[in-house]
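ESCALATION

Customer reports they have been waiting on this structure for their group meeting. Please prioritize. Original submission:
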Amino acid sequence: LVQIKENTQAKSGKNVFGVETQALEDQVPQMGNNVHLNKETNVLESMIFGYLLIDSETISVLPPVWVTADHHKAYFIDLPQLGPPKLPTSANLRIILIKNKFAEQCKRQQVIDAVCDKLAEGKKLKNRYVLIAEAIPPKPGNDAEIDLCFDEVKKAGKERNDGSFDLRERNAVVSIQENDLVAVKTKATEGIDGCDVFGGKIKAKNGNDLNIITDQGVRVEKQDDKTFYFAKKAGNVKFKNNKLIIADIFKINGDVDYNTGNIDVNSDLLINGSVLPGFSIKAQGNISIEGCIENGATVFAEEDMTVRKGILGEETRAIVLGNLRTDFIQDAEVIVKGDVTIGSYLYNTVLRANGGVSILKGQGRKSGRGVGGITCSSTDINLSTAGNASNLHTVLAIQPNPEFCRQLAKIAERRQLCEQGISKISRTIPIDNFEPDQIKAKLAKLPPTQRETVIKLLTNLNKLIKQQKLLKSKSQELKEEIDQALQESKIRITSEIFRGCEIQIGAKKILLDEDMGPAIFQLKNGKIDH
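Update from on-call: job pushed to the front of the queue and completed.
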């Protein structure tokens, strides 16, 4: 490759390398790209600024511009030159871009001018390739958005300036009145197409729509690019999995006592007082209790439950299939399918949560403490202080999700049934060797009636063997998933943990024989590390 200037003449007598050649009129090479013959002067001329390419008897001039395969970028290529350098001007490069039909809006003219000026000053470019044209990227459309006119994120309480939480400010139950505006959806927008360096269209992606499902309690009104959702009745507004509903709320304006009796409702439940000893409440929705759950009460919530004050009593039982938020739990037995957030303390309680357990550090001497009892989670436990100076035995445990354990037990039961079936059929079939050739030979010797029975048994045996292999594989996968969850789980103590506390993760456990400061306990190399 040799660089030549625009309109530089290749005269007969010597080639571009200075080697003697025959006269042009005696030996005319073939003309390749960007070269033409001036018939008046009988001279080959370059039509652009570029790099000379001599391929056999063909002379071409390559433009000093390289375009990526996707046509998204074009670069000026500054190759090393033989002999005195030939420098491009801005006009040279503009002509090349025009000749190759580059889109005007994609050209970086200021960069082109700067490159040519720098070369003219005798300076070297930092890189031998410089971006001089770039595609205009498409602008994707905006996805549809839902703007809720209430705070759908249930909170443990309003955070104070000092980082503690005011548990009087919560939003577990969001009550609205008839005709209240509940939500506003802005529809998705179309994308704006871009273009490559040659002006070709780069298709933009349109925004994704949001399909909001409503029930009979919601009125929908559309206006331009927005959809408005109004409450057709008073109730509790819920938004989950793009489903917006106005649920009925069963309200108790006081305590659950002899005046109300036990409560069992198929809606959300709001109790403005407490649940007194010996009474039970059950709701198919959320439960919000402004007071406390007292000793001997029984509570069952199919969704979330919030207790403003706390849960206490050795005979108190609470089951929550969603998340639980409360100020404290003392002496009670509580089972939660989701996460547990405790605003103050946990004392001598049996708590089992499939999700995480967090005891927040707020105001008060007991705040952030977990003392006595058993606190068990399937993911993580977070608290400020574990145990106390009197060395009350405190257990903090991470155990596999009970649902996974139930699945393993079912798989083990089915595998046992398969083994029993395989054993029974194997004893029944009059075949000692189960190699295919041996089976065929044995079947050929059997009477037709017996042969048909044996074939059916063999078919069932094959099914059982396949099922057994599948169950074994599922069992292994589930065990690996359980092990992975245990490896990722953590028990975090941010302030101190007292002597006598027991840490359990899976089958591993340690009993602390001295007080410690902040610590994080987790499994490493099959041992509990901190």
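Sent to customer with the following note: The chain has a mean pLDDT of 85.
Escalation resolved.
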